[in-house]
């Protein structure tokens, strides 16, 4: 009944066609099954899984999280069991999920990214990789690549040579001009850009007179960053020719539509999954409801109208 | 199976100025009975606290008791900040979104012969369902609870029905004076220890248990976000690496911990 004649599908390019614009943001949804009792995983546009690196990573020391006004800081530090563990132990358990799987890839040098991509290539249900050049919580690599055009290009170039399906590059907002980085990765063959990753932030426990996070600084996410993320998506959408995926504090269909009207082709739901584990489904239903109320048959009618 | 359900506050009572026992009734009794029927002792719920404006994330609260037939969930909350203050002063009729049941819970599937439950403060709450479920399995545990003073002890009547109750208070106003770790009942030949309470208390109990080679399970309370093992925020640095307290725990055999 929800189908009617509203078509929410999005062609993000190079074979990545998603049924609807609602994807999960890496690091907030595990690998999918964690939310399988609550969310109909097959209804997701795509599942972007936890950041994956070449070698296993233990991540940062506890405490890794601080609640903040309308958001949270995290300093998880890319804890994951490595790409081979993903391939051998996690990917087979995602068999029953019909939605495309997108693997978020991280590394400390361009070759790491390329090698992870190369190992993922045989997994035909991984329809895309999201290259993370924007993690603020690791000492080397991560955000360092995402804050200069040259660094962003080096990683994009390496990944592009190793990966011939859809290549999404996730941008850091911790830069002076995000459009410069977006254009740089587009020039090196990125098929889309997703933005924004978390903003570098910090919280202090005044009773104990020390930082809340073990790493002192961490990445800020949640509705508190949404207006900045919308602004950056709007800027980048005007600056590049490839699709833009918007994220940053989306918790409702209305929030998602802000990004879409600002130029996003699709969106990712992140921190909202912690507050409302069914947030992805609600966002999708609310987008559909909006389209029904306003007679919108295709999101192209709304995309980038601002 | 995890459930995302609405519960309506049916009753609230207080045993001190800064705590509350919340009796919550599932608004969908069919799903509620199912979710509550699956709840195991030592598991927790992640509850949304909308009335506290400074509270963004859900709050993990251990399951104190359930009455699955009547779709009732019992949560004991101590006021320790804005979110718990909002829970302690919630009006009857308020509806809460609750994700449950979460975590692994206490394991007594091996049918321990002479288990001792040890709890302090708010950590006493999950021991009620634990003791009752042990009773259902034909086990009558020893239960050692402690608090600062007699007026801060909770559930003493209910726990005394479910097992042999021992009490310690810091000021000696009830039971033995001192910490639970100093109570004479600890000297009995217990086969298993189940513990929930403040970290220093659990560490001292764990060390006593280790010294006597008694298996010991403790319930941890690291700061959490998702509650389902997705965000990796609540990790405990264990001998097996960083493990999510929300998913791999909250209950851990102390042999796995770096204590």
How many helical elements of chain B? Answer: 5
Q: Output the strand order for the largest sheet of chain B.
A: 10-9-8-7-11-12-15
Average pLDDT over all residues of chain A: 96
CATH fourth-tier homologous superfamily of chain A: Aldolase class I
Most extensive interface, chain pair and sizes: A-B, 32 and 31 residues
Distance linking N and C termini of chain B: 31 Å
Gyration radius over CA of chain A:
18 Å
Strand order of the largest sheet of chain A: 3-4-7-8-9-10-15-16
User: Count of helices of chain A?
Assistant: 9
- The level of helicity of chain B is 10-25%
Q: Between the first and last Cα atoms of chain A, what is the distance in angstroms? A: 31 Å
CATH class of chain A: Alpha Beta
Q: What global shape of chain A is seen? A: globular
Count of strand segments of chain B? 15
* Number of domain units of chain A: 1
State the oligomer. heterodimer
Give the low-pLDDT segments of chain A: none
At CATH level 2, the architecture of chain A is Alpha-Beta Barrel
Question: How does this model look, in words?
Answer:
- The complex is a heterodimer of chains A (306) and B (259).
- Helices cover 29% and strands 22% of the residues of chain A.
- With 306 residues, chain A is of the alpha/beta class.
- Chain A has one domain (10-59, 77-199, 222-301): TIM Barrel (Alpha-Beta Barrel).
- Chain A starts with 9 loop residues before the first strand and ends in a 12-residue tail after the last helix.
- With 259 residues, chain B is α/β, with parallel strands linked by helices.
- Chain B folds into two domains: 3-102, Translation factors (Elongation Factor Tu (Ef-tu), domain 3); 106-190, Nucleotide-binding domain of ferredoxin-NADP reductase (FNR) module (Rossmann fold).
- Helix content of chain B is 19%, strand content 34%.
- Chain B is built from five helices and 15 strands.
- Chain B has helices spanning 29-38, 82-88, 125-136, 156-162, 199-211, and strands at 3-13, 19-26, 44-47, 59-67, 72-78, 95-102, 115-120, 142-147, 164-169, 176-177, 192-196, 216-219, 235-238, 241-244, 251-253.
- Chain B has a seven-stranded mixed sheet, sandwiched between helices.
- The longest helix of chain B is centred in the C-terminal third of the chain and has 13 residues, at 199-211.
- Chain B is globular, with a radius of gyration of 17 Å.
- The interface between A and B is medium-sized, with 32 and 31 residues.
């Amino acid at each position: 009944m929800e189908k009617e004649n509203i078509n929410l599908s999005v062609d993000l390019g190079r074979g990545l066609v998603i049924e609807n614009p609602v994807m999960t943001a890496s690091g907030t949804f595990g690998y999918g099954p964690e939310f399988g009792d609550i969310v109909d995983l097959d209804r997701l546009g795509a599942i972007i899984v936890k950041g994956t690196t070449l070698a296993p990573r233990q991540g940062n020391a506890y405490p890794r999280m601080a609640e903040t006004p309308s958001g949270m800081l995290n300093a998880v530090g890319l804890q994951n069991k490595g790409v081979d563990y993903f391939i051998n132990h996690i990917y087979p358990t995602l068999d029953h999920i019909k939605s495309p799987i997108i693997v978020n890839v991280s590394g400390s040098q361009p070759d790491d990214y390329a090698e992870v991509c190369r190992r993922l290539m045989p997994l035909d249900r991984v329809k895309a990789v999201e290259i993370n050049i924007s993690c603020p919580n690791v000492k080397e690599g991560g955000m360092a690549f995402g804050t200069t055009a040259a660094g962003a290009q080096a990683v994009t170039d390496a990944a592009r040579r190793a990966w011939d399906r859809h290549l999404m590059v996730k941008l850091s907002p911790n830069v002076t001009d995000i459009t410069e980085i977006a254009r740089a990765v587009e020039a090196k063959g990125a098929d889309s850009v997703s933005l924004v990753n978390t903003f570098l932030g910090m919280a202090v426990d005044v009773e104990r007179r020390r930082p809340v996070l073990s790493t002192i600084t961490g990445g800020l996410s949640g509705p508190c960053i949404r207006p900045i993320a919308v602004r950056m998506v709007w800027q980048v959408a005007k600056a590049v020719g490839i699709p833009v995926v918007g994220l940053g504090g989306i918790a409702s269909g209305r929030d998602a539509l802000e990004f879409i009207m600002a130029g996003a082709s699709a969106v990712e739901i992140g921190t909202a999954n912690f507050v409302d584990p069914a947030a992805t489904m609600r966002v999708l239903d609310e987008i559909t409801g909006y389209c029904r109320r306003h007679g919108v048959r295709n999101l192209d009618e709304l995309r980038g109208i601002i | 199976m995890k459930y995302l359900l609405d519960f309506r506050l049916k009753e609230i009572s207080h045993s001190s100025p800064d705590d509350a026992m919340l009796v919550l009734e599932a608004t969908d009794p069919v799903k509620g009975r199912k979710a509550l029927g699956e709840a195991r002792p030592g598991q927790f719920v992640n509850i949304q606290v909308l009335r506290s404006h400074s509270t963004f994330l859900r709050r993990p609260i251990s399951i104190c008791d359930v009455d699955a037939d009547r779709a009732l969930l019992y949560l004991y909350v101590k006021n320790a900040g804005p979110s718990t203050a909002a829970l302690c002063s919630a009006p009857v009729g308020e509806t809460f979104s609750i994700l449950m049941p979460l975590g692994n819970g206490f394991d007594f599937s091996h049918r321990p012969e002479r288990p001792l439950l040890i709890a302090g403060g708010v950590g006493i709450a999950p021991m009620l369902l634990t003791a009752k479920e042990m009773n259902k399995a034909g086990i009558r545990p020893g239960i050692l609870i402690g608090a600062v003073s007699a007026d801060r002890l909770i559930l003493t009547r209910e726990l005394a029905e479910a097992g042999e109750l021992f009490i310690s208070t810091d000021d000696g106003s009830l039971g033995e004076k001192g910490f639970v770790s100093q109570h004479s009942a600890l000297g009995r030949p217990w086969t298993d220890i189940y513990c929930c309470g403040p970290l220093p208390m659990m560490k001292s109990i764990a060390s006593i248990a280790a010294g006597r080679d008694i298996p010991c399970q403790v319930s941890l309370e690291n700061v959490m976000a998702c509650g389902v093992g997705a965000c990796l925020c609540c990790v405990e640095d264990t001998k097996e690496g960083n493990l999510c307290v929300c998913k791999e725990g909250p209950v851990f055999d102390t042999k796995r911990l770096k204590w």
